[in-house]
């Protein structure tokens, strides 16, 4: 790197650092901002010849920073998904049986499910009704009852997943 290149790089660094730092901190907070900035300026240093000829070097830096930041966010999101979504799916796939019935869990279900869905799930999995007994009580065939139960569980899984993801997002929004 020539002395002129070094002067150009130092001037660009001095002029753009505050702007880039504000941008990165706004997106991901202060904890990891230094890593993103360091990678951005490393890329700028490696490509100083391109930057010297570029009509908008600060814009080039901003775009590079944005791309590095997006990769960082995507990587962290994948790691977060692996950690929490796996556990969430385990929870969703295991609607509690009579023995491990939890009132708090059922109250949350009641808030997010339709009345029909909640009724079916409680009758089947809490009160222990058989498909035949439920079908007779609802005045429908066994096959129709099985289908309603299947749809009820599907609705419960979907709404619980949305509920848990929203809860996780609200807890971890500063890291996303």
Structure description:
By secondary structure, the chain is mostly helical. It folds into two domains: 3-74, Rna Polymerase Sigma Factor, Chain: A, CATH 1.10.1740; 95-175, Winged helix-like DNA-binding domain superfamily/Winged helix DNA-binding domain (Arc Repressor Mutant, subunit A), CATH 1.10.10. It has eight helices and no strands. The chain has helices at 3-28, 33-46, 48-53, 57-93, 103-112, 115-126, 131-138, 142-172. The longest helix is centred in the middle third of the chain and has 37 residues, at 57-93.
> What is the total domain count?
2
| Main structural class | mainly alpha
CATH fold assignment of the largest domain: Arc Repressor Mutant, subunit A
User: Measured on Cα atoms, how large is the radius of gyration?
Assistant: 27 Å
Question: What is the top-level CATH class of the largest domain?
Answer: Mainly Alpha
